[in-house]
Amino acid sequence: MSNITLGKTGITVNKNGFGALPIQRVSKETAIRLFRKAYDQGITFFDTARGYSDSEEKLGEALKEIREQVYIATKTKSCTVEGFWKDLNESLTKLQTDYIDIYQFHNIDFCPRQGDGSGLYEAMSEAKEQGKIRHIGITNHQLKLAWEAVESGLYETLQFPFSYLSTKKDIALVRACGQAGMGFIAMKALSGGLITNSAAAYAYLDQYDHVLPIWGIQRENELDEFLSYIQNTPVMTEEISQLIESDRNELSGEFCRGCGYCMPCPAGIEINICARMSLLIRRSPSVGHLTEKSQSMMARIADCLHCGQCSSNCPYKLDTPALLEKNYKDYQEILAGKPL
User: Fold this and answer.
1) Is 114 part of a structural domain of the chain?
2) pTM of the full structure
3) How many domains, in total, are found in the chain?
4) What residue numbers bound the domain in which 11 lies?
5) Are the beta carbons of 311 and 320 closer than 8 angstroms?
6) CB-based contacts of 206, cutoff 8 Å, min separation 6
7) Residue 252 within a domain
8) pLDDT one-digit tens code per residue, 134-167
9) Whether residue 81 is found in the same domain as residue 215
């Protein structure tokens, strides 16, 4: 496995980052064990966020004794200076550390700049001067805002969705980061679970020597899979290339990435699962998607209020109600024994 240096930050790690969003779904004991196993076997970059419920607390407890040997990135969604400092101080407390390696604006709907009137970038700069953060980053799902961040020259890292399902415009953004000396952290490297071959996902991203993928992990078998790539790094073969091309043909167009920014739904619909159910069934064993619990979840689609909240919050500008209706229709046909 090759190492990567995140742009001008000087942070050098192997191309395996631990994405700690899913870790909020497991017990504290399990989380600590997974974090420590990851570190013991070579992972030193961990990404979390103030908005990931107890993820920071679990990470802090796991890494407090080896803090100087790891890199921690976290995030704030606050759009006010007061909220920024509150989030930062809470993150420092939960992570049991006196500094954060990369502190990121978390998918807010504008790109903070010096003198823009929000005071956010000035607060970030002050936190860096105080030594509470070491590098300034930003995350986003919107291509326009991501480009603004790159062109501003104000940010040391960009976290953005990137996988072999990404568009040519996304690839141009990735290359621009490299040319600007800006670290690129790839989230959604498995496209929200639609990419089921992690070796193919890894081999594709490994072609970009300045890209650090962070893999969302909550189960030990998932961690073991990515740890195995440290010694046995997947490479781009003809077979993998053909798989990628097949997946691109199947998944081209508009589809839900499962990012969850449409949630919560006022009608109680689990949009980030329901709006891509037919794709999930096609690409993974379907038994778990056809249980009574799953049927009940999908039936909630009929309660859609058509309020537009999900579409307005979607960073990909999808017609989410239409996707829900399509997936509900497909699901009913699957239950009736009809092929998709």
Assistant:
1) yes
2) 0.88
3) 2
4) 3-237
5) yes
6) 2, 15, 233, 234, 235, 236
7) no
8) 999 999 998 999 999 999 999 999 999 999 999 9
9) yes
